[in-house]
Design a protein that fits this description.
The complex is a heterodimer of chains A (about 120) and B (about 450). Chain A has about 120 residues and is mainly alpha-helical. Helices cover about 80% and strands about 0% of the residues of chain A. With about 450 residues, chain B is of the alpha/beta class. In chain B, the strands form 8 sheets. A 5-stranded parallel beta sheet of chain B has the order 8-5-3-12-23, covered by helices on one side. A 5-stranded parallel beta sheet of chain B has the order 14-21-15-16-17. A 3-stranded mixed beta sheet of chain B has the order 1-2-4. The chains are: A mainly alpha (about 120), B alpha/beta (about 450). The interface between A and B is medium-sized, with 33 and 35 residues.
Chain lengths: ~120, ~450
């Protein structure tokens, strides 16, 4: 239980240290979500959001070791791989959350376009 | 001592939480509330008129002060320290090996001082536990009902003849411990050395140290930096330990020595750095029998002997006999961290004369215990919590890899995560050290974790 509380606090302090980025992400998410709520196309936006999230997760998976000063050769332990998957999934999830309302809006615009005469 | 204490409902969230919440207000009340709410104490805040003095504003002092400010209602809590800067000492090895900039280890104490706590900007010059009084370097006498000693320790460069901390960074002289600027200067010296290679001397004194792993981390990272520069093969790295080992936990000691053998690092035991000629780049080591040997170097990492600050060492609070007496360490019971002769005094952090534990991780584990036991004592109870001596050392091996070593008073490895081999090279341990530990430190500092 203490480890869970400590993890939440670590995430909170990381968010504080990157407050600008976090605020920008949240603001974009809130605005896009409010706009997309009117679209009625939520479900249709989901596959695109998942795809975008997966791409971002894959890019994060490839880039994170190098960004931390390491190489893939340093990932020698199950915990290393599990951590990398977890971190990449986190980035992918954040991207997917942002992409979902965007995709829903895009879908709504496409379906609203009138047919050619 | 007349102290009124009664139980009351928990206090509302503190100003520091609200200040942080203000910066992140757009996060949304629902999402932020869980993280921002102060952890509610397991029991209601104790109403008391106790006067508590906390000597020192490092991690231990502020962590305990933060908790006491939350768990006590009506107490007068005074933190005494002149330091305006709050330095994240666990980051010094990252600065000294070129991983972090120096700015990442420097903050302001004013940002972390708990709400409702008085901050006396002075140093304690004298402790008088018989009179329940401390005297500051400005001459102020401050009486207390309870005292938390969190002064940290003193670096004793003076025991090394010819050593000048002001010269760190020049002529191949490095020393990670002497502050952010010294850590950065050490990196510059190391960086200049690795470009050409040559003879490097790494040292370890015989006294207790804060972060006993730091001399080892510096050695591993020096070897890695030489390897990256292509000069490891043409260099000679020698480690001189004033002890019969390089680390106090036998299995870790053996692991380190085996790895150093693979890296071609020579180790000399019972070899104490006694003198240094900075201009000539020559170090003198002495054996227990008094034999002296001189070694020229191109780079040297000096680890100073360490001891308690003079104000503790010459007071009644220090161990009077036994193995901790020579260093002037605080005489606390290793389980409760309460002073063995003055029951209204507790100790936390590097000042404690205990078998192990001069690390930030030790404070993380012991701060709630010290605060909780002090609350017990204020309430008229015996201390109810015990400390197992938890110490943790993320041992940097090379850029991108570390060992996450955790152990207790008995030297038993005690990994927090189940199924984790603490002696396994790990990228996750590197991420912990470089990315996750400072946020954890800040949470401990604020009394949240």
């Amino acid at each position: 239980m203490y480890e869970i509380w400590l993890t939440l606090n670590i995430l909170f302090e990381l968010a504080l240290a990157n407050a600008g980025l976090v605020i920008a992400w949240l603001a974009a998410l809130i605005v896009l979500t409010l706009l997309a709520l009117r679209s009625g196309a939520w479900r249709r936006g989901l596959p695109a959001a998942i795809l975008i999230g997966a791409v971002v997760a894959a890019v994060a998976f490839v880039m994170l070791p190098g960004r931390s000063g390491a190489s893939f050769g340093e990932l020698r332990y199950w915990l290393d791989w599990a951590s990398l998957v977890g971190f990449a999934a986190g980035f992918g999830g954040a991207a997917a959350l942002l992409a979902w309302p965007l995709a829903a809006l895009f879908r709504r615009q496409r379906t609203a376009r009138p047919l050619s005469p | 001592m007349s102290i009124d204490h009664r139980r009351r409902a928990p206090k509302p969230g503190r100003r520091d939480f609200l200040g942080d919440a203000g910066r992140l207000s757009v996060l949304g009340a629902a999402a932020g509330a869980t993280l921002l709410a102060a952890p509610r104490p397991a029991r209601a805040a104790l109403e008391t008129s106790a006067r508590i003095v906390v000597a020192g504003s490092g991690l231990g002092g502020l962590a305990v002060a933060s908790r006491l400010a939350r768990e006590l209602d009506g107490a007068s809590i005074t933190v005494i320290d002149r330091k305006e800067a709050h330095n994240y000492q666990p980051g010094y090895t990252l600065v000294a090996t070129g991983i972090w900039p120096a700015s990442k280890v420097s903050d302001r104490n004013a940002d972390f001082m708990p709400a409702g706590v008085q901050w006396e900007r002075a140093f304690v010059a004298e402790f008088d536990p018989v009179a329940n009084t401390v005297t500051t370097d400005t001459g102020a006498k401050i009486r207390y009902d309870f005292l938390v000693v969190a002064t940290g320790l003193q670096l004793d460069y003076g025991q090394i003849e010819g050593m000048d901390p002001g010269a760190i960074g020049t002529r191949g002289l490095g020393s990670v411990y002497n502050g952010p600027d010294a850590a950065l200067a050490t990196w510059r010296a190391m960086d200049a050395f690795r470009a050409r290679g040559g003879e490097a001397l790494m040292t370890l004194p015989a006294t207790p140290l804060k972060c006993a792993g730091a001399p080892l981390k510096m050695t591993f990272m020096l070897a890695d930096r030489l390897r990256q520069a292509g000069t490891l093969a043409s260099s000679k790295v020698a480690f001189h330990s004033a002890l019969g080992n390089v680390f106090g936990v036998p299995v870790v000691n053996e692991t380190v020595l085996n790895r150093w053998q693979g890296l071609g690092i020579d180790v000399s035991f019972n070899s104490r750095l006694a003198a240094i000629d900075i201009g000539a780049q020559r170090a003198t080591f002495v054996s227990p029998e008094g034999e002296r040997s001189e070694h020229d170097y191109d780079f040297i990492h000096v680890v100073p002997p360490m001891r308690a600050p003079d104000a503790i060492g010459r007071s009644e609070l220090a161990w009077q006999d036994g193995g901790f007496a020579a260093g002037g360490w605080l005489e606390v019971d290793k389980d409760t961290l309460r002073h063995r002769r003055f029951p209204n005094v507790f100790g936390i952090g590097d000042i404690n004369g205990t078998p192990r534990g001069k690390t930030a991780a030790t404070v993380k584990k012991s701060a709630p215990i010290v605060a909780g036991n002090l609350v017990d004592v204020i309430a008229g109870r015996d201390p109810t919590q015990t400390f197992d001596g938890y110490t943790s050392c993320p041992l940097l091996l090379r850029e991108g890899s570390a060992l996450l070593i955790e152990f207790d008073y008995e030297g038993r490895l005690t990994p927090t995560l189940p199924g984790v081999d603490p002696l396994q090279d790990s990228w996750f341990a590197w991420i912990m050290k470089t990315t996750l530990l400072k946020p954890a430190y800040l949470a401990v500092l604020k009394g949240r974790a």
